[in-house]
Amino acid sequence: MNLGMNDECAQACVNAGFDARWVYDSYRRLISMFGDVVEHLPKQDFERALTKAKETNNARYDTELDAEALKLLCGEFKDIYAKHGKVFEQDAMKQLEQSVVAVLESWNTPRAVEYREINRITGLRGTAVNVQQMVFGNINDNSGAGVCFTRNPADGADETYGEYLAQSQGEDVVSGVRTPMGLKAMAEAQPKAAEELESVCDALEDDFKDMLDIEFTIEDGELYILQCRVGKRTGTAGVRIATEMFAEGIISKDEALMKVNAQSLEQVLHPVFLLDAASPDYSSKIVASGLPASPGAAVGRIVFSSKEAKEYKSQGKPCILVREETSADDIGGMYAAEGILTARGGMTSHAAVIARGWGKPCVSGCGAISFKNDREIRFGTSDRTYR
């Protein structure tokens, strides 16, 4: 993302009259992502530097940092390279070449191998790389990025389902660094783009004949579709989507049957709770609430890392994985846990999408969580500590 940006390009963009805040926001994103994905530098080093910059500038979110703060952050990010004996690559073509190699090599990383084993993906020889022209959802207030599904992946309802984050780039939405707005709120802020998105969803679903997961960017009011793929869904949603697509004449009866696997049917047959939310007996036991990212219920000990979740699983002990936000590195722990709880992120965040695909309960965007340290949490203003 943002490949080609370097010191010379950044200065040239500022000199040409482009918004300096956008320039250095894009540059710092490239430096940190390139460091993580290509140079394999510790991601937490960049996260700590960003957190410190926000604290110094009394900013809650990175969108509140001004151009000067972001320019200084670019320098601090380069210092992280130096600390590890590296130098940020200034040649744009070498940035591209090294990025392509990094993606190809990612096929054999432990987390990629683990993901394929969990999902029983076999017989593939490797991955491919798409190189696309950039569009910038962080260029101004009339821009943003989002993720949507052509049907509801939780219950299968025939409605466009998704989230949008103003003045952001795609990684912000799926990583859960900020909790995004729903598509209805987006339609109020971006009516033209929202109408176009609905039309695109209909066209793509008609072409692919399946429920799709779509990533998009709005650059200064103009909608761009970045990618689409068959969307992950719960078992209940899978049955409903297949049934309704057959009824609508989109797919044949045989195609509908092939879209519902044994795991999906097993999820549908699980018992469900009938709760009276207004009952004092129920409401008095709620310690916090968040977004219903993936339906279900789970019980287990709190764990704070993927490694710990896998250890509990190997010992036959149920656990709940609690994180600020999840990433691809947490795949094994998410699979091992009975349920997932995150402090940040929305209904289309990494945790939400993966959990729905596996039929695991997930509550995301639980803002009441405060992490005292890496072993304890509290909810809201309560003095009670959970560990």
Note down, in words, how this protein is organized.
The chain contains 16 helices and twelve strands. The longest helix is centred in the N-terminal third of the chain and has 18 residues, at 20-37. The protein has 387 residues and is of the alpha/beta class. The protein has three domains: 7-118, Up-down Bundle (Acyl-CoA Binding Protein), CATH 1.20.80; 135-270, ATP-grasp fold, B domain (D-amino Acid Aminotransferase, Chain A, domain 1), CATH 3.30.470.20; 280-379, 3-Layer(bba) Sandwich (Glucose Oxidase, domain 1). The protein has helices spanning 7-15, 20-37, 43-56, 67-83, 92-105, 110-118, 170-175, 183-189, 191-208, 235-247, 253-258, 262-269, 280-283, 306-314, 331-336, 350-358, and strands at residues 144-149, 161-166, 181-182, 212-219, 222-230, 291-294, 301-303, 319-323, 339-342, 362-364, 369-371, 377-379. The two termini are 38 Å apart. The model has no long low-confidence stretch (mean pLDDT 91). Strand 8, helix 15 (331-336) and strand 9 form a beta-alpha-beta unit. It is globular, with a radius of gyration of 22 Å.
Count the E strands.
12
For the CA atoms, what is the radius of gyration? 22 Å
Question: Order of strands across the biggest sheet?
Answer: 3-2-1-4-5
Give the CATH H-level superfamily of the largest domain. Answer: ATP-grasp fold, B domain
The biggest sheet amounts to: 5 strands, antiparallel
Element string (H = helix, E = strand): HHHHHHEEHEHHEEHHHHEEHEHEHEEE
Average the pLDDT over all residues and give the rounded result: 91
Q: What oligomeric assembly is this protein in?
A: single chain
Distance between the termini: 38 Å
Domain Pyruvate phosphate dikinase AMP/ATP-binding: 90-180, 192-247
Organism: Ostreococcus sp. 'lucimarinus'
Pfam family, one: PEP-utilizers
Family: Belongs to the PEP-utilizing enzyme family.
